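Convert to structure. Protein one:
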Amino acid sequence: MSEEATMSEEASEKSNIVVVIALIVVGIVAAIAYYLKSQKKDEKRGKDVDMDEALATNSVDLKDIAYIASKLSPDSSQLDVLLAVASTPESIAWSTKSLAMRQKSMAKRMEDDKHEEAQKKADAKKSTELQAFDLDDDGWADDEDEDEETKKKAKLAEEIMDEKKKMGEELAKAAGKIKIPFEGLDDGVIGQKWVETTLKKAGLVPLDLRFLKDMTFEHEGKQVAAMDHPGLRRNLCFLAGRLNSMTLNSHPELLEAASKQRIDPTYFKTAADFRQRCGMLLEATLRTGVGLRNSQLSQTVVEACSMFKLGTNGCGPKESEWFDSVMMKQYNVLPRLKIENTAITASEHPETATDDLLVMTLDLTRLHAENFTRTKIAALQKQGIPPQVALSQYREVWWYFVTAERLDGETPASCAEINVERLPGKISDEDMKKFEDTKFEGRLLTSWPMMIANIAQKSGKVKIQFKAPSVAGKYNFKVAIKSQDFLGADQMINAEADIVDVSTLSRKPKAEEKAVGDDEDEGKKDK
């Protein structure tokens, strides 16, 4: 037989074997797909569905709101807010469940590893037996032609095995059977333990647990301290990692592990879910602070939001200086608002009187608008991303908190009474008292989030409405403007107004005033 014929025969043989393997793989994939689909249906029908309902429904448990309110007070710090959010009953239950799922996955992985090792040994034994079977009667392949033929067959077998291995890997991917790397099980894989150790070496943990120091939590029928509860400890690790993300994200060990795919997804994926949960809880906490009409706590919650969003462990001068340097390097401008022409008027009358609906107007300029727009568009164009699509998701939030101080006397706190119906959840009488003791000067007259969706918007006129105090006097109205996205951009503006006693005025109803005006206009037209 010629060499060309032999090669053609070998190629045909290899092609046939590959086709057979491919058909087998397709069949297995179809079977696995059917199995997974049926399993998914069974899980949906079952009681224990591996799904975080809070994340899926974007909701917050009312018990969590009551818990947060019980741990916070007007003078709480940003860390107090974040610790309260991380230690709510639902947050602990969620992280405890995720740890249980991790243990289950690890046990399954170890079982699969044992089975795989046993299969390898069996395949090796079978291969040895086949090699022995292929030897000639004398046990030696002395003939040069037969030795060459053996080499060709061995090479063909090796190529077929490589093809089978490749298909097996594709099959594993399709079936979700790729091995999950676990910290503590696989060498060089990093997760929670690495985060705790790295932050400890840098002197960034343990966190100051504040009110958590004196608390105990139920775990497996026992009351344990915060750091002895696996679920809560995991949440505190997530929190510490987020607040010190600058230290972790640039760490050489993390970068190397990521490049080698040695990241424990059961930690880092859950850390991303934790951030989403905290975002919802912080929003609920802010609604609670606003509902309690407490200016100090509400502003603290916004500061906690910016810390958590930006990944800093503070919002003081040091952190603001760092943030400013980043902004100048990236945009060559600082994100700032310029406020001008602030004035207060009544919405329906020429004078401002008690219980009137007042309107504070101000002219606003976003000093960073042009640089932000130009830089972001250039970056998107460089990446080949349509700017109009990407920038449609842009959001920039500024909070306006309005309070008032009477300059010629005292106004009772009851003039800004807390409306329990505005609270997102039920709060105990004991916890309510902490906020009811707040004086009038510390109570919110209104709060308003201004959301910028157009990155290029440079200026505009802002109108903030609120009810005038029910006690007449000379007032200094204060507006604290706080950013949820930038550090060092907060400011305070003031506007004074005399609030007269409405009972001393003779006012006509608005409809009647309008009618009188209309008559006068008509009279002028007639003349």
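Protein two, convert as well:
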Amino acid sequence: MRRPWRIAAALLFVITTLAGALFGDRLLALSDNARAGLRQYTELVEAVHAHSGAEVSYKDVVYSSINGMLRKLDPHTSFLPPEAYARMRDRQQSSFFGLGILVGMRDDKLTVISPLEGTPASRMGIRAGDIITTIEGESTADMPLDDAVMKLKGPKDTEVTITLARRGVSTPLELTIKRAEIPLTTVRYVMMIAPGTGYFRVTEFSRSTGKEVADAIASLRGQGMKRLLLDLRNNGGGLLDQAIAVADQFVPEGSTIVETKGRIRDSFHKYKAEGEHRALDLPLVVLVNSGSASASEILAGAIQDHDVGVIAGTPTWGKGLVQTVYGLPYDGALALTTASYYTPSGRLIQRDYSSVYDYYAHGDGVGEDGEESSTGPLELPRGDEPVFFTDLGRKVYGGGGITPDVLVHATEQPELLQFLEARNAFFEFGVEYTNDHKVTDPSWTPSQEVLREFERWVHAQGMAEDEADLDKGFQDAETRKDVLARLRAEIFNATLGNDVRYRVLAEGDHQIQQALGLFGKASDLLAMRKSTKGDTHVAAGTNR
């Protein structure tokens, strides 16, 4: 047998092994048609490799064909090559071993965004704005961000040597740092955002999210929390068991959190709250947007259907397909859709995906101004979407995703702000400013002189071809106010850390500020639940 055919035969083994991972002994009973199809596939792989006008590897052909096959099923079934599968497992862990820095690409340079407090990086004096030029002697100039992050990670107590370029320091700084355990926190910015009002943001659902939420609530209770703003914006989901663990802390014990339904018997499950944590029992507002998907929609849907909180923001993504991950030989995996998610009232979370373009390019699907009832349950006018009812009889809508009780759209940034952010101007200036000015007081605000210094700096960087347009943008009073707030945030990031930066940004976040005005409605909802407790004449899940 010639070598190409041996390779093709090996690829056939990969395909049949993949099938075997799913169907087990049934593979032995493949029909003659199925066997003929697999033989035809190996012949096609060889023909493409041998005669294609562009050089193509067997691996690329097989991976592309697998992805093409899976694309016919649904948008979320996918083949995970070893690298992607490893990254997925890393994201789901509660910790890793590394240096403790947030890094990103700034002007194509691997840049420290912020060192994490108490980590090896902060103890070694690494600062925001430092550029990592080499890792173990290898230049980072053309290194992809994911590759750089993997090189910075490693086994516990092992060392990694990096070289830093720092503004104002002419000589490169070479540091050898011992890796330590770094927690992967998914609950961030835990703070009292207003008197009596707690706040935190859940960025995804990993192995520790349930405990992190419990710890955050306990911490905020200790600070006198009387109400809670839970931020799920841009939370793309994660582990189902952790979404259930979080929902258990908000919905009544014994109530349904989510149901899964599929084609086979094993795909039918009903998950209920087990009451492992003390019930929140406080007015709750939950922020969502079109970036909230999957596990975050499960949580928001359970909170809404059981009337324990007001959902605000814009409609969620509508990703309600359950993926079961099957490990494959050679460290790859198949994430196969096996069921769909339904909220406690019976709503299907998954949005229609008959048009893949519309599925990925959809907008919020509603007008700019959401209406709400002034006397009764919160409602939004909808079209032909199926209507369902919450525990208290409020209308909620199917058709995919979670429709907020109150629509709150994000405001668009002024053009000048977008222009400067796209060029990392605020971040870069914040780093340079703090080289000469030590800002350690959280109440500090930049003066008009700081703003003028920033304007001169922007001109000196040659960021705009038409400086007159730049000056015109700075003359607008509201824009100047926004620029000052962003300068304050990035200067704090360079000196006091990312949490202080976020607090400043929250002050100018329209959705957060509007959500803070909804606790009256959340209090009314909580009072209605308590007044009807034990009344069984309203049944969640009734489709009228």
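Residues 1-10, 20-28, 364-381, 535-544 have pLDDT under 50 and may be disordered. The first helix runs from residue 3 to 23.
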